[in-house]
Fold these 2 entries.
Entry 1:
Amino acid sequence: MKIFENINEWKKFRKEHPSSMGFVPTMGALHDGHLSLIKHARRENEKVIVSIFVNPTQFNDPCDLDNYPVDLDRDIASLKELEVDYLFLPTKKSIYPEDYNCKVIENNLGRILCGKTRTGHFDGVLTVVMKLFNIVGPSRAYFGEKDYQQLSLIKKMAANFFMDVEVIGCPIIREADGLAMSSRNVLLDKKHRCLAPWFYKILKNTESIDLKKRKLEEIGFKVDYLEKHDSRLYGAVFLNEVRLIDNVKL
Ligand code: AMP
């Protein structure tokens, strides 16, 4: 696996290698959810590139950014095992040399659900994805349905800006107990990890949203939101300060 840290080096390399390129952008601390996107990309492209970049502009809470799990050695070992061709590891300074003066803003879907409770979150997500697409030059880019709102916004951005990339959504990968895999799950202590699967269990049952909220709160979740939108139920909760999101098709 070839590792690129320098944007210009990658862009030069990409020009010289015009193969079909599947791209999986991540923030690292990789788990089987990420790996499923990579396997998808592997099947549909000649080459696969993964990026690891903990994007500061999508964190509205500095503590959340400080606590975000990082495990680069383990990530590199997993990527090599999956025979990923390229790893892109840009620095913060190279991605934001201008200190975030130009950004991508979407004022509809980007302002509800996670966009409402995490101010500026999707401006940060869309901006970094636009930058990464422009640098990487992917044929196809893979995103998880776990972050369904994010996936919808990125599809919309690619279409609205006539970007030459196919944005592909991949199904949610869950633990055996139903909890959606997430890099943040490692932040849960033993007690809260045992409670966490109730989030999905309650989200997918057929009770009213009010009853679901009440049940979650009785168990110890702090409900950030639980809302229907376009025949999907979206939820975000805190469990001992750890934020979990999930969604189910209705
Ligand atoms: P992240 O590193 O959390 O920014 O996630 C990188 C990509 O992996 C995003 O497209 C996520 O939607 C996707 N992803 C994260 N967790 C899962 C999961 N449990 N199942 C499927 N995709 C996931």
Entry 2:
Amino acid sequence: MKLFLDTANVESVAEIASWGVLDGVTTNPSLVAKEGKDFKKTVIEMCKHVPCVSAQVTATDFAGMKKQGEEYASWHKHVVVKVPMTTEGLKALHYFRSKGIRTNTTLIFSAAQAVLAAKAGANIISPFIGRLDDIGENGMALIGEIMQIWLQYDFDCEVLVASTRHPRHIVDAAKLGAHICTVPVDVFKKLPQHALTDVGLKRFLDDWKKVAG
Ligand code: G3P
């Protein structure tokens, strides 16, 4: 399973990329607004660290999405144009596929939306599991449903588990065979940690001090 960082913070991307485990980055308008930095510069800088950086269009009509998406794709070959799951978005996905521009469909909340986006030509679909959990639904059950559908067909479209909230989401996404999981910075930093690792390392080092004097 590929691991992406869900952020618009370039320093965090550089830090986690240095661990050798990072396959991409997902940004969205809310994350970009939080950082308050220039969007184009941010995306280009991130593209130096990872091969796949999702940059979201803010236009809501096909013509606007086409214009913005083509511009983003011209910034760097690592850019993936993120398109919202609407009927205008479907048109844009279809268009970008015909032009060889990679896309990620955001705001997927049902299996029907997932199938439509894949059929329209999305390279990636992003079901938001945490937001489903927030309203009392079962986000990971949707991933299970989508992966079951994906097994029956040959969609050229990766399933990216988005809106993750804790490390267990990443493990469960991997167990279901999701292709990609995007993870917020605070959750990503929890992934390498285990209390027994810390205790074990301390004991090894303390014992070694006794031998080494
Ligand atoms: O990648 C989508 C993600 O940013 C949404 O996360 O936590 O706002 O639901 P959240």
